[in-house]
Amino acid sequence: MADEVIVLTGIKETLDALKEFDKSAVRKFNKVINTELASAERDAHGIARGISNGKSDTPMSGWRPYNAARPQSSSRGGSGWPAWNTGEVVAGIRKTKAQGKVRANYTTSAGALLNKSAAGAIFEVAGRKSGKDATGRRQGDQFMRTLSARFKPASRLIWRVVDKDRAKIETNVNKALEEAKAELQKHLNRERV
Amino acid sequence: MAVGAVVARIITQYSDKGSKAARKDITKLGKGFDDFSKKTVRAFAVATAAVGAFAIKIGKDAVQAAIADQKSQVLLANSLRNTTGATDAAIASVEAYVSKLQLEVGVVDDELRPSLAKLAAVTGSVSAAQGLLGTALDVSAFATVDLSTATNAITKALQGNFRGLQNLVKGIDLTTLKSKDLVKIFEEVEAITQGSAAARANTLEFRLAILRIRYSEILETLGYKLLPVIEKFATVIQNKVLPQVEAWIAANGEKLTTAFSNASTAAVNLIAIAISFSDWISNNIGLVKTFAIIVGGLFAVGKVAAFATVIGKLTAAFTALRTSAGLAAVATAYATGGASVASATAALALIGGAAALTGGYIALKNAGNEVRAKNAQALAGSSSSVSERGRTAVRGMRTRGTTGGGNLITNSLLNAQNQLNNAKKKELTIEQKIVNAMLKKYGLTLMTGEIEAKATAAAINANLKRQKAIANAPTVSLAAQGDGSATGNGSIINSGNPNVNVTINTPHGTKDDYIVEIETGLNTLQRRRGAGAGGGFFRTRAME
After folding, report:
1. CA atoms within 13 Å, Cβ hemisphere of B429
2. pLDDT category, A31, cuts 50, 70, 90?
3. What gap in Å lies between CA B394 and CA B379, rounded to an integer?
4. Are residues A11 and B13, on separate chains, in Cβ contact within 8 Å?
5. Which residues from chain A sit within 8 angstroms of residue B1, using beta carbons?
6. Is the pTM of this model over 0.90?
7. ipTM of the complex
């Protein structure tokens, strides 16, 4: 995950004002964001579709592609463990422009990727926390070791895409926003005359 | 945004929602700090006041405790000196013993000292008394009675009366009691009751009592520190202040007595005046009612002014107004007693109107006289009446001049009377203003007698002039002559050129004036009778 992010300011205000003068400019800016997000989404979908253990489309041979008929709570095929359905995982990866909660640093999202499926979420973040049990062993140690060996440590799905593409996306979106602001300024100057 | 999903934010934007919330929070926090600081200040203020009050209480308690303790110590020391011949050193050791004992057994020194004094008096020995005090404490704890009761039982036993001790300590052998051997008896008593006081001292109640004793000891210590200050203060009061007060009272006692006497007399007189005033109202209820009518009349004026919109109605209203206001004003003038008839006449002149100046005036004067007579009758009542007493009291106060509070009361009464007169004047002024406003509004003039007389004279004069003018009006006689022949009856039958001779008596105009007038009249007549355009009269003789 990238530590430094670019915080864009005035997106909503610029677009609201620009809408009054040039709707095509607004559409142009939205197209940039949508394109960048769609690109990231496609990349994430590609990663999800590429997951395979060599025999099946599941990350590991023991990860069932369907829910167990008689699940055991102690095993990964148990009732609490979601089945790996590649289609479902892919469908769960979505782009969104919802703002969501405002963080403590007064920022919110202008574009993000979601990984909504349970199996996809486990695949995404498994091993990020290093919790250990009373014996000192990390819980699900073997699972995470295998997972990390095959698919690299967490994060493995959408975050991998974001970490890879964020700088490019931010730059492109920021550039588009600056253009939109410049366009708005142009219209405002014209109005003033 | 999805709940429970992994969210990877790509594009981040600034949001002022958070900052708004933050500003709100900061404001709230600031308010919270303000509230906190206010509460803190208040709490500190309360705490400071409480501490102050507590300090005062501690100081007061300490001094009181020290005084009581000192008294108790002095009494014990005196008793020991008298009964046992104890020295100061022995007394000091006894005090130390008492102080220590009270903390061990939880019984205050103010109870221990009298018991010790009693036992010392009976035994004649301080050491024996101290030993028996321990026994008394055990007995009181054993029998759950106070130390004084136990001490009394022991002292009586020492004097040969064992009943009290037997009642308190039930287990004493009767044989031993009958033997009257004090040593054996007290050995048995000690055997039965030993350790009771110590055991009681370990109970929660007495441990708390010990704590209280410790606290009172501290207070006493503080009090002993404060006592010299109090003593110094008392000495100053006694030696410096009290003699001055005594001297001042000795010098001014007589004046004080007179002043108090005058004040009380003034108070009594004031009560008498108050009583007489209420009595005066009941005796002169007619006058009070008259006053009420005056006030009512003022309201009536307002109503008339509001509703009189046409001249006819206004005239009627003025008549009624003159009557009511005139009645009110004159009756008031006479009813005020001190007011002169001139003021009543002035009131009548103000209201005006011929009716009021004639019959109305007489009627009102009679009414006023009636009221005044009644007032005088009330004032000239018997000497035993309260009214008379009240007036006498007022006169008395006036004659006394500057002595006592009578002068002040008289002045107050005079001021009140002046204020009432001023208020009355103000009312009359307002009444006059209302009348003037009404007259101005409807373009009328207030008809005083003089104005009315002048107007009447003018009207009569004008009438006479008119009559005279009518009498002196010129008369016109016409004589027409057709074709040169006179008809004699004034009608002209034939056409032609009749001549008309006009004779005018006492003419007021020129000849031409009359000719023009006659010619105009004849032309009008001719037109009405259908004459054509050429049928008019023509002047045959030019005007001169």
Report:
1. 6
2. very high
3. 14
4. yes
5. 96, 98-101, 109, 112, 114
6. no
7. 0.85
